[in-house]
Amino acid sequence: MKIGGLALDGPAVLAPLAGIGNLPFRLLCRRFGAALVSSEMMSCHGLVRGQGQTLRMLATDPAERPVSFQLFGADPAVMAEASVLLAESGADVVDLNFGCPVPKVVRHRGGAALLKEPDLLEAVVAACVKQCPCPVTVKIRSGWDERQINALEIARRVEAAGAAALTIHARTRSQKFEGRAEWHVITDVVRSVRIPVIGNGDVFSGPDARAMLEQTGCAGVMIGRGALGRPWIFRSIRHFLTTGEELSEPTLPERVEVIREHYQGLKNLKGERTGRLEMRKHTAWYIKNLPGAAAIRRRVNSCESEEAYLSLLAELASGSLS
Ligand SMILES: Cc1cc2nc3c(=O)[nH]c(=O)nc-3n(C[C@H](O)[C@H](O)[C@H](O)COP(=O)(O)O)c2cc1C
Hints:
Elements: E1 2-3, E2 6-7, E3 12-14, H1 23-31, E4 37-43, H2 44-48, H3 52-55, E5 67-72, H4 76-88, E6 93-98, H5 103-106, H6 118-131, E7 136-143, H7 151-160, E8 165-172, H8 183-192, E9 197-200, H9 206-216, E10 220-223, H10 233-243, H11 252-270, H12 272-286, H13 293-301, H14 306-318
Parallel strand pairs: 3-10, 4-5, 5-6, 6-7, 7-8, 8-9, 9-10
Antiparallel strand pairs: 1-2
Helix pairs in contact: 1-11, 4-6, 6-7, 7-8, 9-10, 11-12, 11-14, 12-13
The structure holds flavin mononucleotide (FMN).
């Protein structure tokens, strides 16, 4: 798949994940074979005003490249200015979020709200494409709700405005994450534009990835929830797509090694305490299907120091916890 002049080395990419997709997680996903990793969404206003919380999301590292930084907002001039800042901060791709369903975002016409304002959406894309020195991509949902499914119209407008690729999460805004993603909408979009289309929604394995690629004709697949506590899903997908065989899940010690690396990365980025607290949710995902996961999770949540957390991980790796 090519995004503008950028050639990706595979079809499976990491979804933007707010609260999760920071540098340490992206580095893990890239090392396990994600062809492109994405930042959490960032507010265009936060960026241009230089707000600390948003600027901290700009942390990047050559080892994660190619990396996409994602923006949300509805003001064409501010979005364009912010897209330039992202490119200057090391983004290989700038992605525009027109899919976020969260009330806090749509209330200010951000995220999926712009699906209801196609003229403004197109103006935002055109303004960013005009000013941003790197390729600009767009991420949408199928539509606002079941009565307003307008992915085809939006896709054509996005292409006309000069976007280099389009990701479609095949659910409406009102579906949030419920039900099955409606992949036929991806098929329709693929048939109606020439830019690469990345399909998104409910890919949790190599067979899912192959099914989406074959059923919809999309150029790439984006993985969100399937990567939570399983950054190695990108290795599994690559392996399945090339051999037709499913890799077994990593052993417990391998998994714990990944948890340790994730924790070290978060500690370097955010400090020991915040890193350890953020690892609570990640650790719960990493151990989800293990016997005794609920008890392990409770012990993780009660770790009050780095020593306690690391010794718990050592116990976990030795198999004496499960
Ligand atoms: C915790 C969480 C955070 C998310 N944050 C973002 C975000 O910042 N930007 C965005 O475009 N989508 C975001 N999404 C949506 C995902 O990128 C993706 O479209 C969705 O999860 C469907 O893909 P999946 O079935 O592979 O999970 C988020 C989803 C989850 C579960």
